[in-house]
Fold this protein.
Amino acid sequence: MTKNEHIIKYIKELPVGSKISVRKIAQDLDVSEGTAYKAIKDAERMELVSTIPRVGTIRVEKVEKKQIDKVTFAEVLNVVEGQILGGHEGIYKIVNKFVIGAMSIDEVEKYIRQGDLLIVGNRDDVHKLALDKGCAILITGGLSCKDEIKKIANEKKLPILSTSYDTFTITTMIDRALHERLIKKEILLTEDIMPHNLYYLKEHQRVGDMKKLIKRTGHSRFPVVDENMYVIGIVSPRDIAGADNDEPIANIMTKNPITVSLNTSVAYISHVMIWEGIKMVPVIEGKKLIGVITRQDVIKGLKVMRNQPHVAEPFEDMITNQCSVEETQTGIKFIGEVTPMMLNDRGIASAGVLVLLMSTAGCTAIKKQKNLDSVIDSFMIYYIKPLQLENKFEIYADIINVSRKFYKVDITAYHNDEIVAKAMMSAKQLRR
């Protein structure tokens, strides 16, 4: 185990809420402060710790995907660009719900519960009520609270936050932050599709060992690791073809393979597999092997994701969902009109949005006609004419050439039977 891994393990075992410092870790684990600093930064990327202004770095509980629509008080503090006035030790806790306190104290009491965050001005009576109910406080308008309120917050470990923004702006900022998190939730990552079973070969093993592993597991490709479990190669049936059973795997493996991490998007992996012509990639944490992803895993994951209900829409879906789709003999037709969301700062349809619609139409044509996933290889725009707000348009995507691996799609956009945009797209198939 490396020093970095040892420190990460030490941090994982700390109680949630523990304060962490470079100097203390360096002293406790007998490492340099530089090594401790790097490990703490790695732990922060892994969401094991969080650095909070005026509080420091603390051990936090990683929010799992099923809780991605929840945020901690520390995250709210960052979103509203605020400061913490009291209750520092509770900053890592998860917010139950947000309550706006623009009502009488009797009404406020009806709505707040333990774990809530009350958004309110400098109302001392409401502050005390909230803390008594186990509710944290976010004070708007850059205002503060009495020292006795801060003292209660410290005793109860309930954060009191302060921000210079007004209530409307705060709710908008929080809503946007939650929306972005929901979109991230729907991005399929390696950890979502990685199989639990892991099979691999060690560098000292031989071709005969690989043949036995193929027969036992039914798999044909394996990562090769050294004594530290670091990935040093990949071996496939093509590599061992004609090789003697006593031939060391290290002599015939493909060295320095492409690897991915747990938070790599599946869409990126599919691109890599297509461009590089590979069918399996090792998954690593640090440098150590923790799993593998195959083409079958990617295709299965993408199909499952396509059938899931979506809570939040990315921009591309917001735009394309405003259009209707009709199949044609050679492809598809998008029908829609220019909405305010599609305009640029000059009040005409953004060229980027039009290109997005055209490229999506091209990929949709391949999916509808051939029932195959594809990745854009090239997209050549011949010209684009401006469209105004509420201009109706039709985008035709026609498949004009099909080869074993590629499709070529002719894409034309019309407004009032006049061509307003023209492009040619080449796409590569994603096969098993």
Remarks:
- Residues 351-370 form the longest helix (20 residues).
- Confidence is low (pLDDT under 50) at residues 64-68.
